[in-house]
Specification:
21 strands; binds 5'-O-[hydroxy(phenylacetyl)phosphoryl]adenosine; alpha/beta; nine-stranded mixed sheet
Length: about 450
């Protein structure tokens, strides 16, 4: 993609890259097909792991005739990256890499991802595009509380903010009291953090008697974990900003794969760089637009680590309905959760974010919670640990617990125990919040 000039992102411009963000959908599809075939040829020629798979699937390097033919390609899954640890899936030599990131995962080897200079350049562009769509502008002070390090959040948002022409404050996570002071003293207009950490910042500010609603904060880019509309309401009310959902994953790039615009009605998936599909997680069959299923992403420009039909495990829906903002790129609706996080409670499938939607905003409880899952006999049993709001008398806890259990039953359909905790008892996150404590015996 072409270099972005400051002229294009000047005041009054509605897009970071007008040509690419508003490209008619037929032209976008043609661009995708050309880039998909270039990606296949690149993977076939330079990534032995892919060549074998493409041969086995009867898809050589000759390319696909239409985008729908992508369904002929085999899926790639996280285990492929682990099995080829560290660089076995890469399509370039180590000397051509400019950066490595990794995610630690709960078992075994980390998942390692690599970027060439060109990949980093595209990432910075897409992250700048996302920041702009969210409402950030050149010259804004961007307080970046995503973790720096092997996690892609910190450095990804950092490079995008610099590319936008903003002023980045590279705080990373932690030392929350200091974060509050810096937001106020530097006059940050934009906050980048996980939604759970944004809430932790709001809470510490309130404890310090600082009203962040009166600060210059106007826009927040929150992602890296599932969150609900109710949480959006809570964060917006307590920080006095517009809370924008941003999505991404390291295997595909990092933050900025998709981001909401100021309409806050779904995340624009940047289709000039990625091909999005939704599949039935059981059968692997592609699902029509609008149906909920697992998001599958193919990279269209990545050089170091092309990903062909990567199964994200994330459950969502997509729509190509036009957005009021004028961007033509499809929208991914809020990611409700990961397949791996789905609980089956007496036959009912539940994601923690569905429970969150019931908890957050309810009177007399605070938006800090964990689901504790145990095995009782043959059945899974869920206890919701949720904090009482500050100042609520402990004598009222049993009544509140009953009321919460009742609402979870009627709105989510599962029977749970509710345990009211005192303010501060649920651990606060500095990055991705731990929403489920799984005490079930591990399958052997
Ligand atoms: O979390 C990248 C990121 C950083 C995205 C900062 C947004 C902001 P990973 O650590 O590889 O990368 O985790 C990716 O996090 O597959 C989803 O399950 C989840 N996730 C990310 N964004 C969202 C979101 C980063 N907006 C995994 N809503 C993904 C729901 C999200 N889940």
């Amino acid at each position: 993609m072409g270099a972005i000039t400051m002229k294009e992102v000047g005041i009054g411009t509605r897009y970071f890259d007008t040509r690419l963000e508003t490209m008619p959908r037929e032209r976008l599809a043609a661009l995708q097909l050309a880039r998909l075939n270039a990606t296949l040829a690149h993977a076939y020629a330079n990534a032995p792991a892919y060549r074998a798979r493409l041969d086995a699937a009867g898809v050589g390097a000759e390319g696909l005739a239409e985008l729908g033919d992508v369904a002929r390609l085999p899926f790639t899954v996280k285990a492929d990256l682990r099995d080829h640890y560290p660089f076995g899936m890469f399509a370039c030599g180590v000397s051509e890499l400019a950066r490595l990131h990794a995610s630690s995962g709960t078992t075994g080897k980390p998942t390692v991802v690599g970027y060439t200079r060109g990949d980093l350049d595209n990432w910075a562009d897409l992250m700048a595009r996302s920041l702009f769509a969210a409402g950030a502008r050149p010259g804004d002070i961007v307080h970046n509380a995503y973790g720096y390090g092997l996690f892609t959040g910190g450095l990804g948002a950092h490079a995008g903010a610099e590319r936008l022409g903003a002023v980045v404050v590279p705080v990373s996570g932690g030392s929350t009291e200091r974060q509050v002071a810096l937001i106020v003293d530097f006059g940050a207009r934009v906050l980048c953090a996980t939604p759970s950490y944004a809430l932790a910042i709001a809470e510490v500010a309130e404890q310090q008697g600082v009203d962040l609603r009166k600060s210059k904060l106007a826009v927040g880019l929150f992602g890296a974990e599932p969150w609900s509309e109710a949480m959006r309401g809570a964060v917006e009310a307590r920080l006095g900003l517009k809370a924008i959902d941003i999505y991404g994953l390291s295997e595909i790039m990092g933050p900025g794969v998709a981001c909401e615009c100021e309409c806050q009605s779904g995340l624009h998936g940047w289709e000039d760089h990625f091909l999005f599909e939704v599949i039935d997680p059981e059968t692997g069959a592609p699902l029509p637009e609008g149906r909920a299923g697992e998001l599958v992403i193919t990279t269209l420009t990545k050089q170091a680590l092309p990903m062909l039909r990567y199964r994200t495990r994330d459950i969502t829906r997509i729509t190509t309905e036009p957005c009021a903002c004028g961007r033509t790129h499809l929208r991914i609706l809020r990611v409700t959760g990961r397949n791996d996080d789905m609980l089956i409670v007496r036959g009912v499938n539940v994601y923690p974010s569905q429970v969150e939607a019931v908890l957050v905003g309810r009177p007399r409880i605070a938006p800090h919670y964990q689901l504790v899952v145990e095995r009782r006999g043959a059945l899974d049993h869920v206890t919701i640990d949720v904090e009482a709001a500050p100042g609520v008398p402990e004598d009222d806890f049993p009544d509140i617990a009953r009321d919460v259990a009742h609402h979870v039953k009627s709105l989510v359909g599962i029977t749970v125990d509710v345990c009211l905790r005192r303010p501060g008892e649920i651990p606060r996150s500095q990055g991705k919040a731990v929403r489920v404590r799984d005490l079930r015996p591990k399958a052997t």
